[in-house]
Amino acid sequence: MYNDCQGEFSKLMEEKMDLRIKKTKKSIIDAFLQLLKEKNFNQISISDITRKAMIARPTFYLHYRNKREVLVEYLDILFAQYLEEIRPVLRQEDQYQLPAALFRQVRKNAPYLYSLLHENAVVIIQDKLHQYIRDVFGLMLREQFGEQAPDISQNVRDYIVAAVAGMVWAVILKWMDEGMQEQPEKMGKMLNTISRPGILNLLNTGM
Q1: Residue 203 in contact with residue 133, Cβ under 8 Å?
Q2: Which of 69, 84, 126, 187 has the fewest beta carbons under 10 Å from its own?
Q3: In a 3-state reduction of DSSP, which class is residue 57?
Q4: pLDDT tens string 24-56
Q5: What does the DSSP assignment read for 11-50?
Q6: d(CA 200, CA 154)
Q7: In Å, how far from its chain's centre is CA 65?
Q8: Do 63 and 25 meet the contact criterion of CB atoms below 8 Å apart?
Q9: Which fold is adopted by the domain 2-63?
């Protein structure tokens, strides 16, 4: 009986601690995003973040080593939201909705992303974009082909990811530079039309 009560108490304390951690990290990320409306990424300091989040500096370092890690977590949150949106359509033959959902995410977060298009932040975003596209490409193959997925080498997969990531990045930058006048659905169809034939050819030939 005592052990059961002790176990329940420990569980409640862990849940309470988890909620406290989530609340603190949310405060830090929210502060970071507010600052991105005022400054470029390179201009934001840890002191700026802690002041805006109304936390002590040591509290920040309990959760992140630097502002790069805050940016990475923010990008991972966006990707998680993106994945949630595209999962229902991964098996559809016409995949324009995958890039369309990405353009919707970019438009929604544009006030923050504009301030990230500078020096160090760009490198972080490009690295994460490669990772995300690799993950989506793997998911798409599994959903559409299952165990019958095309037998292509890791080297070819890497080149596909690099080519798609480079194209997506260039088109997003152009779209943002033009004021995002075209609708995300139109941009998704355009990007799909450009990239899909080449990718399908590689999958069919199994290079």
Answers
A1: no
A2: 84
A3: helix
A4: 999 999 999 999 999 999 999 999 999 999 999
A5: HHHHHHHHHHHHHHHHHHHHHHHHHHTTS-GGG--HHHHH
A6: 16
A7: 20
A8: yes
A9: Arc Repressor Mutant, subunit A (1.10.10)
